[in-house]
Design goal:
heterodimer; A: 64 residues; alpha+beta; Alpha-Beta Plaits; two-stranded antiparallel ribbon; 19% strand; B: 416 residues; Cytochrome p450; 3-stranded antiparallel β-sheet; 12 strands; metal-binding (chain A); iron-sulfur (chain A); electron transport (chain A); transport (chain A); 3 iron, 4 sulfur cluster binding (chain A)
Chain lengths: 64, 416
C-alpha cells in the first residue's frame, strides 16, 4: 500500500489525522498534512482507507 | 386507495421543530424517511417573503456527500446559505462575503490559513484551558442543583472556548455572543422579539469585528483573529475588510449555537436512555470519540444548508436547472438506514458513523475538532463530579427550521 496526498488540494481539515493518527499528522508549522509513513503495513489499511474516504477534498490516494 | 400512509410534509415549518417529538430527537423522522424512500429529490416551495422561493431537497446520506463535495456542479458562491432570504454572510443578498459563500482558489487560500488554528494538534493545546472552563461551569451547576442545562452548562463552554480560539477578549465575550444568539434564532420571538433586533445585532457584530481586527493588527496573538488580519502569499492582505467581518460572523454563528445545541440534545437523550447513560458512566474518565460524534449526529444542529446548481442536470428523475437551489437536508441524511445500522437508536459506541452534521466537503465545519474536544471535556467533568443527572421538566425547542436549538432542558444534578 502506497499513500499519496495531493498537497494542492489539502486544506488541513484534519479528518485524516483523526482517522489514522499513526499515519497522518499536521504540525504547528505545517502548511499541509504530513504523511508519517507513506508505505505502512497491511494492519493500517482500514484506518488509512477511512482517512481517504473522510478527506473532504479527496486529496488522499491509496495504491496497491 | 393507497395502503401506505404518506405523512404530510412540513420539513421546513418552524413549528415542526418547535413542537418536535422528544422521543425522536425532536425530529420529524417519518417525514424524512418518506423523502429518502419516495422523493429523494423533492421540490419544496415556499410562500414567505423571508424565505427563498423554492429548493430541491436531497435527503439521502450519499446524495448529501455528493452535493457537498461536487462544488463544480453545486456552488456555494452564487447566493443563499440556507432557506432564509437574507443571511449576514451572503454577499449576493446584502451580506458580507465569507468562506462558506466562496468557492475554488479563493476559498482554498483562506481556508488553509484559518484551518491551522483549528487542527486536531493545535486544538489539543487548549485542553488545559477547556478543563478549567468545564470545572467552572460544573461548579456553578452543582451549586444550583436544578437548572436549565442549555444556559447553565451548554452556553458558557462554547462561548469561552470560541473566545479563546478566535481571540475575543474575556470582557467582550458576553456581548459578542449575545449578538450571535440574536441572529441565530431570528424567528423565535422569545429570543429575538423582532427582525429589527436581528439587523441591530448584525450591525453591532460588524462594527465590533472591525474593532477586533484593529486590535489584532496592533497586538498580534496566537489566535484566529490574528490569522484573519494577516497577510497572505505575496504580502497582500489575506482578506478584504468585508471578508474579515463576514468570516467573524460565520465563525461565531457556526460555533456558539451549534455546540450548545449538540450538547443539549445529547444530554436529553442520555437522560431518557438508561443504557446510554450507564455507558457514559462506565466511560466517564475518558470518553471515546464515538459518543461525541453520535451526539452530533442525532442533534443535527443545522437541519440543512443550500447550494446552487451550476448547470442543468437530472437528479433522481427530476430536471434541476442551472441556478436552482439544492438543499442538503442533513437531519434526514443522519438517519438514513442505507448507511446507518438502526439509525433511530442512539448508540454511544457507533463506529461506522458517516453523519453529515459537519458537512463532508470543502466547506466542512472548521470548528469540528474544537467542538469535539469541548464536548468531551465538559461531559467528562460533569459525569465525574455527579452521581446522578435527571430531568426536572420537559425539554422545549427553539422555534426554527434551520437551527435546532434547545430552548429549555431542566435538569437536576446530585453531587458525587
Amino acid at each position: 500500500m502506497k499513500i499519496t496526498v495531493d498537497t494542492n488540494l489539502c486544506e488541513v481539515h484534519g479528518d485524516c489525522v483523526v482517522a489514522a493518527p499513526d499515519i497522518f499528522d499536521i504540525g504547528e508549522d505545517d502548511e499541509v498534512v504530513q504523511v508519517l509513513d507513506a508505505e505502512p503495513g497491511e494492519e493500517h489499511r482500514a484506518t488509512v482507507a477511512q482517512a481517504a474516504k473522510m478527506c473532504p477534498v479527496a486529496a488522499i490516494t491509496i495504491e496497491g | 386507495m393507497t395502503t401506505t400512509a404518506v405523512p404530510e410534509l412540513r420539513i421546513f415549518d418552524y413549528d415542526t421543530y418547535a413542537e418536535g417529538d422528544p422521543t425522536t430527537f425532536g425530529l420529524p423522522l417519518e417525514q424524512y424517511r418518506h423523502l429518502r424512500d419516495e422523493e429523494p429529490c423533492y421540490l419544496q416551495e415556499f410562500d414567505d417573503p423571508m424565505l427563498i422561493d423554492r429548493a430541491w431537497v436531497v435527503s439521502r446520506n450519499e446524495d448529501i456527500w455528493e452535493v457537498d463535495r461536487n462544488t463544480e456542479l453545486y456552488a456555494a458562491d452564487r447566493g443563499y446559505v440556507n432557506i432564509w432570504q437574507v443571511v449576514p454572510i451572503d454577499p449576493k443578498n446584502g451580506g458580507m462575503p465569507a468562506m462558506l459563500t466562496t468557492d475554488g482558489e479563493r476559498h482554498r487560500s483562506q481556508r488553509q490559513v484559518l484551518a491551522k488554528g483549528f487542527t486536531p494538534g493545535y486544538v489539543r493545546k487548549l485542553e488545559g484551558k477547556f478543563r478549567q472552563y468545564a470545572k467552572d461551569v460544573v461548579d456553578d451547576a452543582l451549586e444550583k442543583g436544578t437548572f436549565n442545562f442549555v444556559h447553565t452548562i451548554a452556553h458558557n463552554m462554547p462561548m469561552e472556548a470560541l473566545g479563546d480560539v478566535l481571540g475575543v477578549p474575556q470582557e467582550d465575550r458576553v456581548k459578542f455572543f449575545g449578538w450571535v444568539d440574536k441572529f441565530a434564532a431570528p424567528f423565535d420571538t422569545r429570543i429575538t422579539a423582532s427582525f429589527d433586533e436581528v439587523m441591530e445585532a448584525i450591525g453591532n457584530l460588524m462594527v465590533y469585528s472591525e474593532e477586533l481586527a484593529e486590535l489584532k493588527r496592533a497586538n498580534p496573538a496566537d489566535d484566529v483573529m490574528t490569522r484573519l488580519v494577516a497577510s497572505g502569499e505575496g504580502g497582500d492582505p489575506l482578506m478584504s475588510p468585508e471578508e474579515i467581518v463576514g468570516n467573524v460572523a460565520l465563525l461565531a454563528s457556526g460555533a456558539a449555537e451549534s455546540t450548545r445545541t449538540a450538547m443539549s440534545h445529547g444530554m436529553h437523550e442520555l437522560m431518557r436512555n438508561e443504557k446510554a447513560m450507564a455507558w457514559m458512566r462506565a466511560h466517564q474518565n475518558n470518553l471515546p470519540p464515538t459518543v461525541i460524534q453520535e451526539m452530533v449526529r442525532i442533534a443535527s444542529p443545522f437541519t440543512h444548508l443550500v447550494r446552487t446548481a451550476t448547470r442543468d442536470h437530472e437528479l433522481h428523475g427530476k430536471q434541476v436547472k442551472e441556478g436552482d437551489i439544492v438543499a442538503m437536508l442533513f437531519a434526514a441524511g443522519n438517519f438514513d438506514e442505507r448507511v446507518f445500522d438502526r439509525p433511530e437508536e442512539f448508540q454511544p459506541d457507533r463506529i461506522e458513523n458517516p453523519h453529515v452534521s459537519f458537512g463532508r466537503g470543502p466547506h466542512k465545519c472548521l470548528g469540528q475538532h474544537v467542538a469535539a474536544l469541548e464536548m468531551k471535556i465538559l461531559f467528562e467533568e460533569l459525569f465525574q463530579r455527579t452521581s446522578n443527572i435527571e430531568p426536572a421538566g420537559p425539554i422545549s425547542y427553539v422555534r426554527d427550521a434551520y437551527s435546532r436549538g434547545v430552548y429549555e432542558l431542566p435538569v437536576t444534578v446530585t453531587p458525587r
